[in-house]
Amino acid sequence: MDGNGRWAQLRARPRVEGHREGSRAVRRIVRSARRLGLRALTLYAFSEQNWARPEEEVDTLMLLLRDFLLSERDELLDNGIRLNAVGNLARLPGVVRAVLDPLRRDSESSSEMTLTLALSYGGREEIATAARELAADVASGKIKPEDVTERALHGRMPSLRVGDPDLVIRTGGERRISNFLLYGLAYAELHFADVLWPDFAEADLYAAVASYQSRERRFGLVGKPAVPSDGAPVLRLVG
Ligand code: FPP
User: Fold this and answer.
1) pLDDT of 52 strictly over 90
2) CA distances to 22, 31, 88, 151, 171 from 184, in Å
3) CA-to-CA distance for 162 and 98, rounded, in angstroms?
4) Which of 108, 121, 133, 160 has the fewest Cβ atoms surrounding its Cβ within 10 A?
5) Distance CA 129, CA 112 (A)
6) Is the pLDDT assigned to residue 238 strictly greater than 50?
7) What's the pLDDT score for residue 229?
């Protein structure tokens, strides 16, 4: 969700105003995703590297996150949306954990869509954590070195419990991944939108999904395009 800072800068307003508008876009896009019938949406809301931003910006982002979780709680639950979070959650302040943890628990059985917030998240960090866990299992004799397979690593990645990402959308005009979902990205389709995140509208999400639908996914094979990784039916957009 890139471009909050530039959105504010263009209006000669403080960066935090961009994040405030960005969190309105989050509300909008979560609703749109649910309406579209997406089964999983993962939002890169705060990277492990973002802690190094100015204190005022970090504090504002944490408060916006808490406000989002508080204000959307009922709507998420009413619409069958499971709220999850991945990343180094132990680093999050108590005010966020106090609303995040109960909502994760209370929405556990919701099954229409999973909304995952990547918080204090880093793709390399996630791979390192998974490798460390498997190394500990080898050291204790629970598994053998040859059990450290691609699947075993995959199974230790909390961000991939919803499946590998089919489509990754980056807003804000940059063409890079910035440490997001690195392991799961192997066969993801990438979509770069030039619109700044606070301006990202339902129509932009539709355009991204339509672009995804026009791609031929081969997963390293030849011939007929394969179905998405979770076998879900491809979405048909109307109107
Ligand atoms: C990157 O834009 C954006 C972030 C680091 C924060 C994203 C946070 C939100 C959209 C709002 C809060 C989140 C939720 C889930 C309610 P940037 O600041 O790097 O923009 P720039 O590249 O234009 O400076």
Assistant:
1) yes
2) 25, 25, 18, 11, 19
3) 24
4) 108
5) 29
6) no
7) 55
